[in-house]
Amino acid sequence: MSDIAERAELGQPSAPSSDDHAKRWLVLAILAIAQLMVVLDSTIVNIALPAAQRSLEFGDADRQWIITAYALAFGSLLLLGGRLSDLFGRRRTFIIGLIGFAVASAVGGAAVNFEMLVAARAGQGVFAALLAPAALSLLSVTFTDPGERAKAFGIFGAVAGGGGVVGLLLGGALTEWVDWRWCLFVNLVFAAIALVGAFLLLAPHTTEARPKLDIPGTILVSISLFSIVFGFSKAETEGWDSPATIAWLAAGVVGMVAFVYWQARSNHPLLPLRVLTDRMRAGSFLAVLISGVGVFGVFLFLTYYLQLVLGYSPIATGLAFMPMTIGLVAAATLSTSVLLPRFGPRLVVTGGLILSAIGMVLLAQISVESAYALNIVPGLLVGGFGVGSVVAPAMQGAVSGVHHEDAGVASAAINTMQQVGGSIGTALLSTIAASASSHYLVGRELNPLTQAHAAVESYTTAFYWTAGIYAVGAVLTALVLRSGLLPDSAEGEPVIAH
């Protein structure tokens, strides 16, 4: 086992040897692979759904559960997964998450019926909830040098933000060229590579402390997050005025209030309120929540537009998102290594949200006759650059100045915000889009052209709303984030307290 991994696990600064320097970047590579696997599984199955539906012979009403099962398990258990990595060791949690995710993926790929596939997707979500926060917290304690840390978070943020696009592209390629089952089997390749790297580079964590888990807090937050994510899922399928939607969302809000009340009084809180009360971290959480609302909306509606209106194949649809990926990767790297150390997160993240809003306004100009290069690429580039300027700096801000023993749960909180934001965005924007389409069709003759125009009306309405959400988010984030640099950027100190 390497010395660097052991120091990282214990939160100690890494020695500046060339050997350790190389190993740190190898650690980043395996963490990025694991993060990519988790993020792309939010979208990779989407394109495979029609083929899976034909193969397993389940109905349209059941189709949403292939997506929802993953989101529910992942979103509701993230905070628990983050705290477990703090209590029992990040390496151990990371490896268990990798193995479990791989097994669940294998079961899903071999599914013989609908129930087996849904159970496998839920299993993926459970182990993703262990894996994602462990990966981010390992990153935060591995890179303590300000310059290296900025580059590492830029790369990791690009993977976290662009993984959904990779999922669309990979899902289209595998479905069209091989079989829909390989959208799940492919995770075995990612997991195997990351697992070998974890065993070689990450040293076991040993402690004499007896970990204590906040059981009441765990139950409260898991039920609350489950209710919130499920409630938004119900809103998407049954409407906002459905009794089921109202009941689940109300239960989620009540549960979250009870959770916060308990955390303020618990001796061993699952999510110490000190993690949330710092303005830098609170603003970072808010920014990722808002970014999640918009990104998932772009993926959903632009995918529909490209395939249903412009007639793109699944592979062509995935490739069409590449300008967004390019903008996102460029912005994530530039914002963390150049802009964040100079201007601080308030200006960078707020500017990223404004750019994201502009990108959505550009995409809202599409029509039935739009040309890809002229009408779609500019919005994707600007929007991608905006999202990259939000996600990567916010991830770094979310773990800035946090106590070493809280690194895992802080990492889980930022992942939770992204997941809940995606659930909100999918439900809210789907409802808005459906209403816009119905309103457009009133008094018009039903024919293929009219229906195409109605579909485009729904997409452009959703993009305008997304732009508005980003704009409001920019104002709120600017108010919450305090001016100045992050602790590690300002003082050159490790983010994690030793």
Annotated CATH topology of the largest domain: Growth Hormone, Chain: A
Question: Strand portion, in percent?
Answer: under 5%
**Terminal residue distance:** 22 Å
SSE pattern = HHHHHHHHHHHHHHHHHHH
Largest sheet: none
The beta-strand count equals: 0
- Gyration radius over CA: 22 Å
Average of the residue pLDDT scores = 85
Count structural domains.
2
Written description of the protein model:
The chain has helices at 3-10, 18-40, 44-56, 60-88, 90-109, 114-142, 146-177, 182-201, 215-238, 243-263, 274-277, 279-309, 314-320, 322-343, 345-363, 372-398, 407-441, 448-480, 487-491. The two termini are 22 Å apart. Helix 15 runs antiparallel to helix 18 (448-480). With 498 residues, the protein is mainly alpha-helical. It has two domains: 3-213 and 270-491, MFS general substrate transporter like domains (Growth Hormone, Chain: A); 214-269. 81% of the residues lie in helices and 0% in strands. The radius of gyration is 22 Å and the shape is globular.
Q: What secondary-structure arrangement, pairings included, does this model have?
A:
Blueprint: H1 3-10, H2 18-40, H3 44-56, H4 60-88, H5 90-109, H6 114-142, H7 146-177, H8 182-201, H9 215-238, H10 243-263, H11 274-277, H12 279-309, H13 314-320, H14 322-343, H15 345-363, H16 372-398, H17 407-441, H18 448-480, H19 487-491
Descriptive terms for the model:
single chain, about 500 residues, mainly alpha, Growth Hormone, Chain: A, about 0% strand, disordered N terminus
